[in-house]
Amino acid sequence: MAGEQALNAHPDLQNSGTGKQAPTAQDNILDSLAALNKAAADSLRLEVIRVLRNNSFGVLELCHILDVKQSALSHHLKILAQAGLVATRREGNSIFYRRQSQSEPVLQSQQQTLFACIDEAPLSTEIANRLQQVQHERAASSASFFQQNAKDFEQQQELIATHSLYGDGVKDLLSSSPLQHFTCALEVGPGRGEFLAELSSLFKQVIALDNSSEMLEYAAQSATQHQLNNIEFIHSDTAAAISQHIQADCIVMNMVLHHTPSPADIFHDLYQLANDDGVLLIAELCRHDQDWVKDACGDLWFGFEPEDLIEWASNAGFNQHQSVYHALRNGFQIQMHSFCKNPFHLNQTV
Q1: pLDDT, tens digit, for every residue of 217-230?
Q2: Which of 6, 123, 181, 231 is the most exposed place for a label (fewest CB within 10 A)?
Q3: Which top CATH class is 153-345?
Q4: CB 258 within 8 A of CB 272
């Protein structure tokens, strides 16, 4: 009786009759902090986090980049995942790892401080070269698809979304965007040139940029057919466009990011290509699980969460202006976003 009275007097000691104190919120925080510190106490795991700064990679890609055996790397990835430092995303039969952008609020500052410290250390030359090799292989895979399927790409794209399903939405975003000047517009990946006519009517100069010469040729043919005489066609990518000192008041990317080797990185390129008062318009698929698009349409990524695009744009320096969503057939959904480089123009419209 005395023991029972003592136990009742201390309810915190009750835990299924074991006499052990039930875990408190403070205990859970300390456990999470301990897991984070454990994960950070290894140079290879820190290197993994460093490599994942602006990109997602599969296990085999990470093994190549870091020159580590898969069995060893899988162990480290498990520890990083348990600590909430990396997250996974399935793309068909492959699992890709990325940094975990969200963590428990009480650990958010520690996580971000860790990431900031890691990012101050540059990648070694060997790792940087192998990472670039992986990016080139992804780009080559995408380019090869368009080279072989450019003629039939429009029919394949109709299985997901035709321009007619989202073109008007992009036009509306353009008309309501805080655009200050109509001198130069840049469309990255213009496809068959469906949106070039709209840009040509509004801007003095339009640049169509594409790393697929086959697709660029179709866009040029469309421009000639519609007598669009203010368009310059450049066979290149965004990184090369920066070296050519291209600057645009408006940048448009319609259904391009899911073909891009490194979607997060390209936002940094776009920021450099935009004028100080420039705007960015993005039309893209929302996240889906229909893996047939990889073979049918050459997609590298199965759409994106809206939060990802907004975060990547923000990290590059853009400010979110508007977001619109359209439901499509076959379970697909399109997201459209407008961003501006100058935050003082957020409340201004054309």
Answers
A1: 999 999 999 999 99
A2: 6
A3: alpha beta
A4: no
